[in-house]
Amino acid sequence: MNYVRIMRHLTTGQLAVRRILPAASLTAIESAIQRSEMTHDGEICFAVEAALSTVSLLRGQTARERAIEVFSQIRVWDTEYNNGVLIYLLLADRDVEIIVDRGIDAKVANGEWDNICHTMESAFRQQQFEAGIINGIDAVSYYLRIYFPPNLKQGGNELPDEPVVFF
After folding, report:
1. Number of separate domains in the chain
2. Which of 134, 152, 141 is nearest to 112 (CA)?
3. What would the pLDDT profile of 73-127 be if each residue is shown by its tens digit?
4. Which Pfam families does this chain map to (predicted)?
5. Gap between the Cα atoms of 42 and 63, Å rounded
6. What is the CATH number of the domain that holds 73?
7. Nearest to residue 94, comparing CAs of 120, 115, 72?
8. Beta-strand pair 95-100/84-90
9. What is the reported pLDDT for 80?
10. Full-prediction pTM beyond 0.85?
């Protein structure tokens, strides 16, 4: 059991999220997603969670496992072309995970998503959270533009662009 991780999660709360991602930053992230989705037919969601629950910590849940839960919970998989992408930030661990639906997963190697995550985490170490997230959105958009150019889908925006914040 990693007691340092448990303490970090117990002491990271909603104030930490509001400090690093104030309302203006959340609005900028939403705008970046909206701009991005005008250039492709993919769907991008961003979610941030302050910390895991005590039960999840004691079970040893990883950020990746939680990101998969969030992917399902907010229905990122529910797109016409199975091209939804979740960018998930677990603040207490400063860990970014990108979870992609099967339509885009079949086209882009996992290493590319990992590179985007590492670049974002590097920006976070420099306290550049908003810029790191927006750059991550832009990097994800690059692949969505290649494989899902605009005008394929009929339904318009399938998922909300507003960041999801868990406390």
Report:
1. 1
2. 141
3. 999 988 888 999 999 999 999 999 999 999 999 999 999 999 999 999 999 999 9
4. TPM_phosphatase
5. 24
6. 3.10.310.50
7. 120
8. antiparallel
9. 86
10. yes
